[in-house]
Design a protein that fits this description.
Blueprint lengths: L1 H12 L4 H46 L8 H12 L6 E9 L18 E13 L12 E10 L2
Antiparallel strand pairs: 1-2, 2-3
Helix pairs in contact: 2-3
Length: 153
């Protein structure tokens, strides 16, 4: 019994393995925090990219403005080429406002032909991002959706 007590006393006084144990406890936490910080940065970078792409689409629509004849197909194809996004993630549509109403509509033929008709271009970009931490069973995929409407005529 005396030998067992002296063995425990020596183990309690020894600090040789303390650093290994502390490292084993802290390392997984630091790795997970690093992965989280990296992935959060990638998500912000993706959101900024999408915002930039939609700003570019608006600039293209305004630069190529031919009033009511603004070609949404051309704007979409330029945006697909310049952003590298697939065409199914980009939607470019025309919208109209009749007179001073607050709502935008898809068809200008319903407006009073004698009144003022404003033409808008509506750009919508969607994207899907799967963070690394979902590999560890934490969280889920993120869907981005960015919209912008600009008056062209």
């Amino acid at each position: 019994m005396k030998r067992l007590a002296s063995l425990f006393a020596r183990l309690r006084a020894s600090t040789e393995g303390a650093m290994v144990i502390e490292t084993a406890i802290v390392t997984p936490v630091l790795v997970m925090m690093s992965v989280g910080i990296y992935d959060t940065g990638r998500m912000f970078e993706r959101q900024i990219f999408l915002q930039s792409a939609i700003g570019e689409a608006t600039a293209i629509a305004l630069a190529a403005n031919s009033g009511a004849s603004t070609d949404v197909t051309t704007v979409k194809s330029i945006l697909v080429q310049s952003s590298g996004l697939p065409a199914n993630q980009i939607a470019v549509t025309k919208k109209y406002r009749c007179g001073t109403t607050a709502t935008l509509i898809d068809d200008s033929t319903t407006c009073d032909p004698t009144g003022e008709i404003s033409t808008y271009i509506d750009v919508s970009i969607t994207d899907h991002y799967t963070p690394m931490w979902t590999e560890f069973g934490v969280g889920k995929s993120i869907d981005f959706r960015v919209n912008r409407t600009a008056q062209v005529a």
